[in-house]
Design goal:
single chain; 2 domains; disordered N terminus; 43% helix; D-Maltodextrin-Binding Protein, domain 2; alpha/beta; 11 strands; six-stranded mixed β-sheet; five-stranded mixed β-sheet
């Protein structure tokens, strides 16, 4: 018996030409589905209320609306941000897990610790630099200090007694506090916490005296009069709050701040990074987002992934010099 083409396709158990084409069409449709076609997980290496958390939720919501897929924030607290960053570094590179990076855990932490489970330049792909900020010297409203100078005077008169909360040894907030103490000439009691929200809980509860913390994180508590800001670490006063003094008015030259942006595990497709960069930048241009950013005193950045990479490299140089100047040795 001769087997021609017509005979082969009609053999028992074989698909007919009609169903074969339908199957091929279905498979092609599934493969061709545009990115993203499901929710994107955003790992935030900090507690709720932290600057990265606030920005990831604000900007992520706008990006989500444009892409038609949720950007779901997943807070992963621990080790000064190292825990969350390790999860980002080890995540699949399919575009459905990204994270929020900041200068503290991507630059300062690697300078402060000899062994980390990630390499800033090898394990991450910068997506979009969202904003840069400044820190604020913050105390409980009942504390009698009226300004930064009053706090420094007290700290000098009571060496090691004034307690400052940070999110751990060798973190950005710790470096900012060390820098103030060095330049102002006082000593203090360092109290490390697992996250920013825990610091605020203890200041509001009167269990610690002060913190140098991101103004983005401080702002809601300041507006609700739960915390008092003695000064902000900008070169000039904030235009939207001209009555709030700068720390530099008491400690000349003291300026401290960081940056925040979306990052991905290294190896994520360039077209996916380009899409998220484009939509993040578009979100930063929206009037309501810009208004909130301005209220926080943030400087908005609408730049390329390459610009973000260069920002990280420049910060390594800057904070590396600071670590040497204050005699901090990596642990």
């Amino acid at each position: 018996m001769a087997y021609g083409w017509r005979n082969v396709v009609k053999l028992p158990g074989m698909l007919s030409i009609k169903y074969l084409f339908l199957l091929i069409f279905f498979c092609s449709s599934v493969i061709a589905q545009p990115y993203p076609n499901k929710a994107i997980r955003v790992i935030v290496p900090a507690a709720p209320g932290d600057s990265c958390d606030t920005l990831a939720r604000l900007v992520g919501q706008k990006v989500s609306e444009k892409l038609g897929q949720a950007l779901t924030v997943d807070n992963r607290v621990g080790a000064g941000g190292a825990l969350g960053l390790e999860m980002i570094a080890r995540a699949p590179t399919d575009g459905y897990t990204i994270g929020c990076g900041q200068g503290g855990n991507m630059v300062v932490l690697p300078l402060a610790q000899k062994k980390l489970p990630y390499d800033t330049f090898k394990d991450f792909a910068p997506i979009a630099l969202m904003a840069s900020n400044f820190v604020a010297l913050t105390v409980h409203p009942s504390v009698p200090f009226k300004n930064t100078r009053d706090l420094i005077t007290y700290a000098k008169a009571h060496p090691g007694k004034l307690s400052f909360g940070t999110i751990g040894e060798g973190t950005f907030l710790h470096f900012s506090t060390e820098l103030l103490a060095k330049e102002a000439g006082f000593t203090y009691l360092h109290v490390p916490f697992k996250g920013v929200s825990f610091i605020f809980t203890d200041i509001i509860g009167g269990r610690i005296d002060a913190t140098i913390n991101s103004f983005v994180s401080v702002y809601p508590h300041y507006m609700n009069k739960r915390l008092k800001v003695l000064g902000i670490a900008r070169a000039q006063r904030l235009p939207s709050m001209p009555d709030m003094p700068t720390i530099a008015e008491s400690v000349p030259g003291y300026v401290s701040g960081g940056w925040f942006g979306f990052i991905a595990p290294a190896g994520m497709a360039k077209d996916q990074i380009a899409l998220l960069n484009r939509e993040t930048n578009a979100a930063m241009k929206l009037p309501d987002v810009r208004e909130k950013m301005t209220n926080f005193g943030l400087e908005i950045h609408i730049e390329s992934p390459e610009y973000f990479t260069q920002t990280i490299r420049s910060d390594f140089d800057k904070w590396g010099k600071l670590a040497r100047d204050i005699g901090f040795k990596a642990q």
